[in-house]
Design goal:
Layout lengths: L1 E2 L21 H7 L18 E5 L17 E5 H7 L12 E2 L2 E2 L12 E3 L5 E3 L2 H9 L5 H24 L5 H20 L2
Antiparallel strand pairs: 1-6, 2-3, 4-5, 6-7
C-alpha cells in the first residue's frame, strides 16, 4: 500500500483582481502541479478534462468572492461534477462536521484521508475520507487507470536509462521502439 499523493498542493497568496475565476486557471495549474486537487489524477491526456472548482460552493459564499484564489481548486471534470454544490454545513466557514463535508486539498490533513493500493485504487483511511470518497466518486476506475499509466511511464523512463548503457542488440532496439511508440500514443491523448 502506498501514499495517496507525494505532495500537498500549495496555493500561492494570489490576490490579484480578476473579472472571472477562470482567469486563475494558469496559476492553479502551477500550484496543483497539473493534478486534480481531489483525486490527484494528472492533467496530461485530453480524455480527462480539467476545470476549476470552488471548494466552498458559490451558492454558500457570503464573505468569500467567487474569484478568491484561496477558494479555488484545480479539479478534473469527474471530481468537479461529483462534488458540485455538496456542502453539508451550508456555512462557508465550516468545511465539515460529524464526518461529513470536505477538507481543503491544500491542507496536509487531506493526505490522511486516503492511500493507494498497489493496483492504484484509492483506499479510504477515515470516516470523513469515506464521505468524500463517495461524494466525489473516487471509486471510479479512471483514477486507477490514470495512476497505472503514470507508473508505467516512470518504469519506461527507468528502463530507457538502463537500455542506453547496454550494447546494441535486436532486443534493446525493439524495446526502445516499443517505449517510444507507447509514449507517442499517450502524448497524442494530451494533444
Amino acid at each position: 500500500m502506498g501514499v495517496f499523493r507525494t505532495f500537498t498542493p500549495v496555493r500561492r497568496p494570489i490576490i490579484k483582481k480578476v473579472s472571472h475565476y477562470r482567469d486563475h486557471r494558469d496559476d492553479l495549474k502551477i500550484d496543483y502541479q497539473n493534478r486534480c486537487g481531489y483525486c490527484n489524477d494528472v492533467d496530461i491526456w485530453r480524455t480527462v478534462w480539467f476545470e476549476i472548482d470552488h471548494l466552498v460552493p458559490q451558492k454558500y459564499l457570503v464573505t468569500i468572492k467567487d474569484t478568491d484564489y484561496s477558494n479555488l481548486v484545480y479539479a478534473c471534470r469527474s471530481c468537479n461534477n461529483a462534488k458540485r454544490a455538496n456542502w453539508p454545513t451550508k456555512d462557508e466557514k465550516i468545511h465539515n462536521v460529524n464526518n461529513e463535508g470536505f477538507i481543503d486539498p491544500c491542507d496536509d490533513e487531506y493526505n490522511n484521508q486516503f492511500s493507494r493500493l498497489d493496483n492504484g485504487r484509492i483506499k479510504v483511511e477515515s470516516n470523513l475520507g469515506e464521505w468524500m470518497y463517495n461524494k466525489m466518486k473516487l471509486y471510479k476506475p479512471q483514477h486507477e487507470v490514470i495512476w497505472n499509466i503514470e507508473q508505467l511511464d516512470i518504469l519506461i523512463d527507468e528502463c530507457e536509462g538502463f537500455l542506453a548503457t547496454m550494447p546494441n542488440d535486436n532486443l534493446k532496439d525493439r524495446l526502445l521502439i516499443l517505449y517510444r511508440e507507447y509514449k507517442n500514443y499517450t502524448k497524442q491523448l494530451g494533444a
